[in-house]
Design brief:
The protein is α/β, with parallel strands linked by helices. It is built from eleven helices and 15 strands.
Length: 335
Amino acid sequence: MAVSSGRRRRGIVVGMGSIGRRHARLLAGREDVEVEICEPDDARAQAALAELGERAVHHGFDEALESRPDFLVVATPHGLHADQTVRALDAGIPTLCEKPMSDRLEEARRMVEAARRSSAVLTFGFHMHFHPGARRLKRLIDSGALGELLHVHMRVGSYITLVNSVSRYQAALEGALLLDYAHQPDLLYWFLRERPQGVYMAGGRGGELELSSNPNVLSLTCDFAGPLLATVHLNYVQMPERHEYELVGDRGWAVWDRKSGVIRVGAREERTESRETVSTERDTVYRDEHQAFFDAVDGRRGPESPAEDAVVSLEIIEASLRSWRDRERRLLASR
């Protein structure tokens, strides 16, 4: 559904949690977009309007869909993503769905099937693909500068995510920490273009904290066909936030501290270490994500995170949560 130049796209952001409000605010700042919101909770809708200014409000998804917008942004709770996205695609409406795809792998696969049969563009909100730091690490991998990659490590500690959550669903949704940080399983596949063979996850809930989740600390190990290992540490404990990535190859290594923006790159044979700084505003990353979505809708590029790629993150998450519950290594589900 391409939109001709000179006409503003009419889009609806569904769900006025913190991420939905960010999408709506940034899209409202574009001259080529007319933004409406969909939120059944009147208090949340009014809070969003106080930030966005007066605009059309849809109080239910049926109403929003029936208005035939040019595009949708789905930013509702995880369990609603699949049904709303599938219905939008079946109606021919281009859709940007927030991560994770869903809270269940079978629902994510239903989204893949809907994308295959629909002519409408579908992409997922893995906005880290647009961060210059993540893109720099991917270039180092793809160029072969690090040699054979042997270890990838990702670390995020973010109590502030619980503080900023509007609904505080993390207290009741088992495994919310890994679902919320689906970015890390997604980045593994984006960096490596290879699915893990198996995963082992350990985690627990502890600490004297006002806000928590189960687990609120976890460690995930992914093994691959070759000697490569990947580890992911996540916690809902640390504040200020900590956010780091490390790559280790047989020719070099790289470490990116997202908070400081510093990337350190080591060269083994030369025994040298260089430093560079990449910085960007979080809003800029989302703006770039929006532009890529519109470019895909207009046929100028493919979706950055198509369903066939995005589902790998749910395959990793589903196997990881099974591993945590069963306390044993789990193979990824066959495709």
